[in-house]
TrEMBL record:
<keyword id="KW-0560">Oxidoreductase</keyword>
<dbReference type="InterPro" id="IPR001128">
    <property type="entry name" value="Cyt_P450"/>
</dbReference>
<dbReference type="GO" id="GO:0020037">
    <property type="term" value="F:heme binding"/>
</dbReference>
<dbReference type="GO" id="GO:0004497">
    <property type="term" value="F:monooxygenase activity"/>
</dbReference>
<protein>
    <recommendedName>
        <fullName>Cytochrome P450</fullName>
    </recommendedName>
</protein>
<feature type="compositionally biased region" description="Low complexity">
    <location>
        <begin position="30"/>
        <end position="45"/>
    </location>
</feature>
<feature type="region of interest" description="Disordered">
    <location>
        <begin position="21"/>
        <end position="47"/>
    </location>
</feature>
<dbReference type="GO" id="GO:0005506">
    <property type="term" value="F:iron ion binding"/>
</dbReference>
<keyword id="KW-1133">Transmembrane helix</keyword>
<keyword id="KW-0472">Membrane</keyword>
<keyword id="KW-0479">Metal-binding</keyword>
<keyword id="KW-0408">Iron</keyword>
<dbReference type="GO" id="GO:0016705">
    <property type="term" value="F:oxidoreductase activity, acting on paired donors, with incorporation or reduction of molecular oxygen"/>
</dbReference>
<keyword id="KW-0503">Monooxygenase</keyword>
<dbReference type="InterPro" id="IPR002401">
    <property type="entry name" value="Cyt_P450_E_grp-I"/>
</dbReference>
<dbReference type="GO" id="GO:0016125">
    <property type="term" value="P:sterol metabolic process"/>
</dbReference>
<dbReference type="Pfam" id="PF00067">
    <property type="entry name" value="p450"/>
</dbReference>
Amino acid sequence: MDLAPASRRRRRPHRRCAGGQLHFLHPGMQPTCKPPQKQQQSKPQRAIPLSEELKLQRKYSSYNLPPGSLGFPFIGQSISLLRALRSNTDYQWYQDRIKKYGPVSKMSVFGSPTVLMAGPAANHFVFSNRDLIFTQTKAINVLIGRSIMTLSGDELKQVRSALQGYLSPEMVTKYIWKMDEEVRKHIDLNWVGHQTVKVAPLAKRLTFNIISSVMFGQGVGPFKEALATDFEELVRAALSIPVNIPFTKFNKGLSASRRIRKLLRRIAHEREAAFQQGRCGSADDFFTYMLALRSEGTHSLTVEDIVDNAILLLIAGYETSSVLITFLLRQLANEPDILDKITVEQEEIARNKGPNDPLTWNDVSRMKYTWKVAMETLRTVPALLGSFRTTTKDIEYRGYHIPKGWQVFTAQIVTHLDANFFDDPSKFDPSRFDEMSSIPPYCFVPFGGGPRMCPGNEFARTETLVAMHYLVRQFRWKLCCKEEGYRKDATPVPVLGLPIELETRSPPDYAHA
Ligand code: HEM
């Protein structure tokens, strides 16, 4: 079976199905949860057939496994967790488990024995333990190839440092004008003159356009539409069962992956030639940046590897940021006072600029209040569920043994909504970020933490603030369906896509020239 171009080339580090998106895609911590107590280990449910459970008990007879049950073979707790995510009751689901078993419990999700860990100390452990690696779905491995997510050792260090460099504030300063240009174009085309718009798909389109314009420059111009559709297909397939039968999601994803790869490979080779002839500089696009680093000996990635990482970066970047923009707009529809304060901040920044001057890094650095509102949005609706890892050897956490090959999982929402760390946690209150130092480490983790913390956080902050600058100055909006809820798939999605009624606020004197 021809799975994918990437699959022919390389070994896969591991192929456990985690059933999630990029599960992708902070020190001196004292554990805040109580130590494990015998009475917390309530009677294990006898859902798993006796022989299986006996096998397991025999295999790990000398282990002190965490309390909890692995449930039915293969299914385990997957269905009940998925149901909780879909109905947006996952916080309660985690709380029920924590109440029953304590902050460390075993279960089985998405085909693997998994240890759920709760609390800031658990976050710290998962983010920084060297014996844990990113959990990957087989589908993601096949579709995306040998990206940073699958690397280890020196290769991982090299790629991580290259990607971090490309997404660093110094680089964002150089390409922020492209974000500005894409936001203005997007608003002119999709928002101006419309009475209602659907925010979720538009935000996705906007963040896709921004990241593809920053990473590939004009190279994808004529192919942008097709590329966006192919990426949608790829993301859908990343969550599917990896069986290559015609017309399945996975099969369509494979075809999309081949088309994306073909286009990006061509652009990469063109850039390689231009770079060798001194016709482009390292800040021009992602490929030239990576080729320039290679020529300095910083890494030794092939063009094929660079293409794999470009695909990963694009996927990691656009889905998550679009969730943040969508939920910011959703929140602001119900918070006129907060919206007014944001508008004042943005008008102040606009006052000293010409109508067509793009926003600069300095401008964005002054959008402090707007970013607090964005952080509060990420606290209450994290763009990613949390972090999944897989153990590379038997490990120990708080006296419990976790066997090699098991998954560990921490959910962001568990600390984000914990009243021990955030007063009145269900209240939307951006002022809690006035003093960042008042938030204990590893409690607010929308971008993860430790050595694998999101390298795209500055990129995400900048594009979100640029988008908010133009949207809040130009429009006011109301939710078409006041009670519209949201479900969590790989990322949170408003059930109807968040249709809003738009009202134009002021003459668009800063619209795209
Ligand atoms: C609001 C927007 C974003 C959020 C909330 C977010 C969140 C995260 C989180 C939580 C992780 C770590 C997951 C883990 O530890 O399991 C992560 C990793 C990652 N993110 Fe982001 N992210 C965002 C935007 C971006 C953007 C814009 C980019 C790129 C342009 C990006 C690129 C990456 C990459 C490459 C990784 C993997 C890092 C590694 O493997 O070491 N992210 N992200």
